[in-house]
Amino acid sequence: MAFPPSGEDTIAGHCICVTLFIEPRTGKLGPSALVRIWKIYMAFGYEYLMVYLPEICPSSFLLFVHNPGGLTKLRDYSSGQERQLRDTLTVAEVLSRTTIGRTRCHYDPQRTNGKGVGYWTQVTRELNRRWLSPVCSQKLLGLSNQ
């Protein structure tokens, strides 16, 4: 693939969306040009977010998957198995209830069943260990002065 890429291309079934912003004065990429390259989504534009929604699951982060068509899935991997939750939230609801980098983290696409269960279980356990200890959960939710 030539560099810099432009437009859309596909590699191994992944849609690669690339947007290049060119400086209007010079028509070239420059120091002030904003370049967004290699934003990778699974086929059909699915996005994978690990989210902490204490009103739904106070003991664990959950995997929230959505696509541009509005299809959403909420999964719990804290037991080491995939458990799809019945709660149906829109993307807007999840985004309004979470904060990027605190209660919402973006992840690269991975399978959600079969071999992917081990991956998401590991991610879930790491986030829970890091953020959901008693002291950390107060900081996560902004309840601490520290």
Distance between the termini: 48 Å
What proportion of the residues form beta strands (DSSP E)? 25-35%
The beta-strand count equals 8
Task: Please write the string of helix (H) and strand (E) elements.
Answer: EEEEEEEHEHH
Q: Kindly state the mean pLDDT as a whole number? A: 75
Integer-rounded radius of gyration: 18 Å
Overall shape: it is globular
Low-confidence parts lasting 5 or more residues at pLDDT below 50? 1-21, 30-43
The helix fraction, in percent, is 10-25%
**Largest sheet, if any?**
5 strands, antiparallel
Describe the model:
By secondary structure, the chain is α+β, with helices and mostly antiparallel strands. It has 2 domains: 7-41, no CATH class; 45-140, no CATH class. Helices cover 21% and strands 27% of the residues. The protein has 3 helices and 8 strands. The strands form 2 sheets. Strands 7-6-5-4-8 form a 5-stranded antiparallel β-sheet, covered by helices on one side. Strand 1 and strand 2 (14-20) form a beta hairpin.
Summarize the structure.
By secondary structure, the chain is α+β, with helices and mostly antiparallel strands. The protein is built from 3 helices and 8 strands; from the N terminus they run βββββββαβαα. β1 (7-11) and β2 (14-20) form a beta hairpin.
Write the layout of secondary structure elements.
Elements: E1 7-11, E2 14-20, E3 35-41, E4 47-51, E5 62-66, E6 72-76, E7 83-84, H1 91-97, E8 104-107, H2 116-131, H3 134-140
